Amino acid sequence: MEQDFSMLDAIISKYRNRSGILIPLLQDVQHTLGYLSKEAMRYVSVQMGIPAADIYGVATFYSMFKLKPQGKHIIRVCKGTACHVSDADGIKEALRSELGLQGDEDTTSDMMFTLMEVACLGCCSLAPVIMVDDTTYGKLNPESIKAILERYGEEA
Length: 156
Ligand code: FES
Fold this sequence. Notes:
By secondary structure, the protein is of the alpha+beta class. The protein has helices spanning about 10-15, 20-35, 40-50, 50-60, 80-85, 90-100, 145-155, and strands at about 75-80, 115-120, 130, 135. It has two domains: about 5-60; about 75-155, Glutaredoxin. The longest helix has 12 residues, at about 20-35. The structure holds FE2/S2 (inorganic) cluster (FES).
């Protein structure tokens, strides 16, 4: 069944017949839908008369664009040098294990958490560091992960 993307029509008419608008257009679409699905990109392509390959190219090039649904809470694991040498891998493994993520999954099945790796978060003296949404947690060890996640699980 065709998905209804009429909620995007106001955004599309705002950008129609303007050039150099692909990034802000896709930002607005993502803001509305939470992520850029293939179907949404196809809809924008047809409505705007922009080749789908151009839209997909921009959406995959910039890390700010999400091509999959995101969890309610975003967990960023720092993989910068200082964190890397302070067992960022162990922190990531503890997170994946606590969240029950399998294989290449990065979002929990209840859509509560999405896990991603990022470069230096700018607080290397606290390595290893993670951020959950806007909150930074530092000087972590794998055993500290469970208690941090529980703070977010309780409000579910
Ligand atoms: S390397 Fe992790 S905060 Fe800088």
